[in-house]
Structure formats: structure tokens, C-alpha cells
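Moderator note: this is an archived Q&A kept for reference. The question asked for a predicted structure of one protein chain; the sequence and the answer are reproduced below.
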Amino acid sequence: MQAIQAYDYSILFNEMGYEKLNILIEENQYSNIFVLVDSNTNEHCLMRFLSFLATDKTIEIIEIEAGESEKNISTCVEIWTILTELGGDRKTVLVNLGGGVITDLGGFAASTFKRGIDFINIPTTLLAMVDASIGGKNGVDLGNLKNQIGVIKNPKMVLIDSEYLSTLPQNEMRSGLAEMLKHGLIADQMYWSQFKDLTQLDFADFDALIHRSIEIKNEIVMQDPTENGIRKALNFGHTLGHAIESYFIDNEDKKTLLHGEAIAVGMILESYISWQKRLLSETEYSEIKNTIKAVFDPVPFEENDLSPILDLLIHDKKNEYGKIQFALLDGIGKIKINQTADNELIIKSFTDYKT
């Protein structure tokens, strides 16, 4: 599969990716190699990765527990400490083998250790393949607030190996599918159309769908690496989605949502706001709502959930001058950034979601 050239690194696929990885390690003459995994990728993915690695460099494995709760500064301190104790230096490379938590956290730890060491992302979940590992955003959560602390720094390369998906539970596959749906909605109507009826989707061509999703994200990031303009398009569904995700993480009476599950709700809500602001037709809105609801189970909201979710919007890192910023659809396949919506309209979007 054709490599994708990002800003200053390559996104490579399957066996060819491992060949290029070994060349990269040799050319850069790294002093040692650290591999960051969680308990799941240690069990299901690490042996496959090591079987392709051809090097005589020292390899050290750093394992953390799986889950969003590990994506915090305390875990970073543990990683920095292990790197230090095991002889990590400026010529060390960190390989992040895992889902979005591992690539976000590992990228941040590498970017700040000794003022920055090289890192390589090998995403093992669909969500990380099409979103988290691409674009150079690295960071950790602050309490229940998503991605509040972080940096933008690119990996040396990203390696996409779809074989890792064979170990993934169905709910994790759906979580990644949410970001693929988003890419179609914001940038490619034809791509979106391929997902309108999943019974007709040929999963034999899933590699090609992943490739196109990464292409869309990369094309947007290349235009605006530091998110001052069009890269904000990628936030569609995330303004409300992140607030919902944070609220459910912090509320023990609620079932914690996967990232994609929260973003799926956010896309429906923000599509409703797009329709009410006359950017989207009612027909388009109904198509989006019905397509997403056919994939994702409904998330229950009570009346008393809305106020704390609205309060969390204030902390969204996309906000400017105290105003909540939305990226809204301007028809399917197009986007309008820097849009606002009042609380009354946001509450109406929740009311409509429940119908």
C-alpha cells in the first residue's frame, strides 16, 4: 500500500513499513530502543512487532496498565524515571505500540524527556490508526479534562499494520469507525457514502478505507500543522463529544464511554446545530443521524446531566476569548470553523438526539 508523506515524516503500511522501520533505526544509530506498551498490547501485539525488528540494539519494554485513566502526568513521571534508570539518553528512541492512550502519552513523554527524543508510533487500534497517531498531537489529560496538557511534535514515522486489528473487540472497532465517519463528513462526501449502509461495505477493502481516512486527516494537518485555521475542522463532533466523554469518566453513576462512542453523539448533536444554523439541510441531518445511530447504541441522558456537560464546555482547549468554538458542517463533505452556539440551541440538540 502506498506510503503517505506527512509534514516531516512518513506513514507506512504493513510489511513495507517494518522494512523502512529497520532502515530508520540503522540510519539514525540509536543508542537503545524503548517500546511503550499497555497490558493489552503487551499480550496481543508485542511479539508480532518484535518478530519484524531486525537490530542488535538493546530493547527495553515499558508496560503500563490499559485505559484512559493512565493518560496522566503521573504515568509520564513513571516513564521518564524508567527511561532514566535504564540509561535513556538523547539518542534513545521510544516506540509507542498501542492505541490512542499509548501514542498520545508516549509522544508527550518522548517530546519532553531530555528536551525531546525521537519516537515512532505503531497504532494497534482503529482509532489510533486513523486519528490519534497522525498529526503530531501528544499529551495527557488533566483530571477528567481531555488533552489539557500537551505539545505538537511529529514522530519519526508512523507504521500502520492492520493485522493488529484482528485482536480488537467490536466496540473498539466501532470507536475507530466514528473518526472515519467524521473524515467523510468534513471532507469527502463520496467517502462518507461508503458507510451509509454497512451491510454493503466490503471489509476485504478495509485497508483502503483506512488509507483514505488517514489521507484526509493528513491533507488537513499539512495545511495547518499548529491548528490556527483549517485543522480545526478535525474538531467536528469533539466540542460536545469531549465534554460528554469527560462527564461520563467523572460520574460513577454513568458507564464510561469509549472516545468514538462519545464523538458519535457529538457528531449528531453538532450536525443538529449545523442544521438549525441553516448550514445543513434537514435531509442531510436525518441521513447523518440515522447512519450514526445504526452503528452506535444510544447514550442515555437525564435532564440533570446537561448542566454539568455545558459547564465542561468552558474548559475546551479550542475556545477563544471565553467563547465556545464549534466546527460545523456546511453540507456533507464541507466544514465551517469558528462557529458559536448558545446554550439554548445546545440543549435543543440533546432533546432531538433523544427522539
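Archived answer notes: Residues 4-167 form a domain with the Rossmann fold fold (CATH 3.40.50.1970).
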